Amino acid sequence: MNSMNRPKSLAKPLVVDRMSKSFGAVDIMLDLNLRVEPGEFICIVGPSGVGKTTLLRCLSGLAAPTSGQVTVGGEVVREPLDEIALVFQDYRGSLMPWMRTLENVTFPLQGRGIGREQRDRTGMECLAAVGLENAARSYPWELSGGMQQRVAIARALAYDAHILLMDEPFGSLDAQTRLGLEDLVLDLRKRLNISIVVVTHDIDEAVYLADRVVVLSGRPATVVDTVTVDLGLNRDQLTTKSDPRFVQYRNRVLKEIMQ
Fold this sequence. Notes:
The protein is an alpha/beta fold. It has helices at about 50-60, 90-95, 100-105, 115-130, 145-160, 175-190, 205-210, 235-240, 245-259, and strands at about 15-25, 25-35, 40-45, 65-70, 75, 85, 165, 195-200, 210-215, 220-230. Helix 4 packs across helix 5 (about 145-160) and helix 7 packs across helix 9 (about 245-259). The longest helix has 18 residues, at about 175-190. It is globular. The protein starts with 13 loop residues before the first strand and ends with a helix. The relative contact order is 0.18.
């Protein structure tokens, strides 16, 4: 499977160019510009209702911009692409309860004409990447919430996508499980050379995960700040969050949102 050992040269930039989005007469976003470099981790934050999920849907090809465009490697995103995978917040609703874990992970590959043996091999590699190879025969209802979200992440990896989009992926999990999955996603980014874009309401989470935190605000929403987080790649829940720079970044983002 390519995604378990992907050369960086295959990664492509994700570019949002003067993108606006409206629903009828209501303008949601206006002239947004954003560039996600290959292998970069971006977190998007902002007040509730500002349009973060709508932006993510436009990035994934599930929704079309009213004006402007989204491109991956120069190709305009008009529909879901193989290069992009999306992990939803509602992991329970995204897994088929009648399918075992491995079947849930490999289900999207059936439409590509990939044989059963190759699908299963790919699925097991993806489950191993998230530490669930021993749960391949379990049903979703036999797994904890954190394990179910790991299955959803493994399924996204099975696409062999270079860009992973995540919409509030840990919002409904308990605090300890959430911290563990944050570290898992950081590890996947390093090992698989993938770009990751996460929408979150949690400012601490955004600063802990991201290379850059993009702050949206206003009606219609615009990018009001982009915070470059210079905390290195090897982060630790205790050490990193005790760093004075972490506190400075968090307070800067919080100030922008409160204003």
